[in-house]
Amino acid sequence: MKFRKKPLHGVKLENKLKNRQLKQQNVAKKQRKEQKKLRQAVKDAAIRTPRPLETYRKRPGEEEEEEEEFLESLPTDMMEDDDLRQMTDMARKASFITRDLSSCAPIHSTKKRKSEVIRSYEKVPRKMAKTEEKEVIHLLPIKDKSGVIPQSVERGEGGLVSSDWFTEEGAGLKVIISADHLTPAQREQRRVQKIQERKTTIATLGSAIICDPVNNIKRLKELRGMLMESDPAVAVTVRKLVMVSLMEIFKDIAPTYKIRPLTSEEKAAKVRKETQQLREFEESLVSQYKFYLEDLEQTIKDWKQQKKKRSQAVGFDSYRGLAEVAIRCLCELLLALPHFNFHNNIIVALVPLMNDPVRQVSDMCCDAFRKLFQQDKVGGAALASVRVVSGLVKSLNYNIRPEVLRTLLSLRIKEVHMKKDLEDTAPKKKFMNNKEKKKNLSRMQRKWKKAEEKLEKELLEAEASESKDKKIQLHTQTLNIVFLIYFRILKKAQKSVLLPAVLEGLANFAHLINLEFFDDLLNVLQNLIQSGDLTNQESLHCIQTVFIILSGQGDVLNVDPLKFYSQLYQMLPRLHAGAPNDDISIVLRCLDAMLTRRRKQVTLQRAMAFMKRLSVLSLHTLPNASVGLLAANRAALHAFPKCDFLLDNEVQGSGFYLPELDEPEHCNAQNTALWELHLLQRHFHPVVRRFAVHLSRGAPSEGSGALGVELSRRTPVELFDDYSVKDMTFNPPVATPTSKKKKQVEKALNEEEAELDFTKTQTPIT
């Protein structure tokens, strides 16, 4: 009889089953041995446990009866009275002799259960170091912020020895010294020590997270838990340190992309171990970042609402300091992580704080949004911010600070639209069709031409990418919302404090306004100027807006803004000549748009009237304003060369000059001369003297009377900013200069004397 051999896979299966059974038997044996050892240890511990004798307190009647029986049993007839009295006193004292031992039950009378044995084993006190036993007298407890604290005193040989506070810790006692017993120096030392310990903990956790974010991401929760510091002595400082530390950590470990939540299919799919680890890291990072932002927002809300917390770790006075640190952290995250999650939530939290009554908080938020607008190249963050600002203005019924609207001036919309206009006006390259190729090119040239055209098409497609179209679209939406804010305020709140900011914004973005709004906007601005309710700066912004519109897309409009020329001509003598001369900068921009850019639409009489009035104005303004006004006269003289007869003393035409007349067309400016230049040649500022000499010679581009390159290539506004009051020295050179500057001063004085000698030989201006 032949036996069949079992297949190989059957043998392997039987061996596996046998091995599994043997392992199970070994595990069961080990468990039984361990249980047996545990039972034996418990039994030994129960036997060795010292059990105190149990005493039962007797009733008062029983004690008196036993005392009487004891006295009766004594042989009183053989004892004296003193001995009898002493024995009576001894009988009244409880001692081991008078104890009723018969009433005590035996210790191990019955067999105890296993649970009772274990419970009694747990109650056995641990061995402690032998200390000197002292009598402790317990006093009334004391209650403070932390709760009820028992108080006690020790009785020594000489009476009361010490008075400390005791708190139970485990089965022993721990002494806690009251904070009231410490000196101020000791309190400060203890506080500094605690702060140093917290700093070490924060630094350890932070360095561990930054070194290995993927594996140590759980440390973020531990670090964020320190925001709930409960020690009143160091709570404020520790919370501030943790806020700033977490902000820096998130700036370092946050990826350069936005993390999206996983779909159900992606979660169910099997991935590699590295991918799963990355997913867990991203999920933990987003959740901890969200909790951190919520903590910052809650800190700000507690400050605004003056909400009192249950724990008294932080007082009301410290709320503002914590809130300012939280706002600064949000501003830093707004600028550092514009691409990361919850960026719109940060914008929503910070935009209302731009209008905060606390100036420091408002300026901090406004500066953050200015920087955000300047560094935003795509336009998504700017669009989200402008939308929230628009909602804020409407919800508060236009009762906001002007600084909120002035932040919109930092939007980078002008540059992008200028590039777009240049690309639209540039001639587009045309490709040759097949007939032209066969007619003009050979076979090899056609082959090369085909490859070249293919490459150029690919380059054009790469250049006109989706991001560029998206950027233009986002900027268009942003600009529409900005103009919506401005037009609402012009329509409903013309007398509010926001009007200067609105007019300044219109002047900044006027070249981007659609043509369909030009007529209505010009009428509104003209009515505002004629109403007389505007200040000089507001009126100047209106005039600047009008001429920027007319010098840009408004060229197609057949409008003569003579009234705006008259308004500016009338305002020039009323400008401030003191230190806050910011109006001069706006005047210089208006003159550039009114005279230089519109030279073909301006009459010669009007140009000469403005030159004469600007020369008069330059006599009583600060040096930087005088330099800017003289530079504007130089630009007007180049734009209108026939105005050079103002440098001559001959009269042109009939009549005489009317300086008090506010109409530039009818003041007869051609019958006067620029005698102010003769006075300005003796001005204390060297640049003013150079410009006066240059204009008196007819503003030549070459020769001895020409300006240097550093002055001739700068616009009037740039010269006004360069020679501002902060950078100027009003005093003339000192007679005894230092050795380093002696040669420079002497050279400058020699040049000035030579210029003055040259001007004396010229024909004087009357």
Automatic annotation (TrEMBL):
Residues 434-470 form a coiled coil. Residues 539-692 form the CCAAT-binding factor domain. Residues 1-72, 731-766 are annotated as: Disordered. Keywords: Coiled coil, Nucleus. The keyword Nucleus applies. Residues 198-292 form the Nucleolar complex-associated protein 3 N-terminal domain. One of its GO terms (cellular component) is nucleolus. Residues 62-71 have a biased composition (Acidic residues). GO terms for molecular function: chromatin binding. It is found in: Nucleus, Nucleolus. Its main location: nucleus. It comes from the Eukaryota. Residues 29-40 have a biased composition (Basic residues). The keyword Coiled coil applies. Belongs to the CBF/MAK21 family. This is Nucleolar complex protein 3 homolog. It comes from Sphaeramia orbicularis (orbiculate cardinalfish).
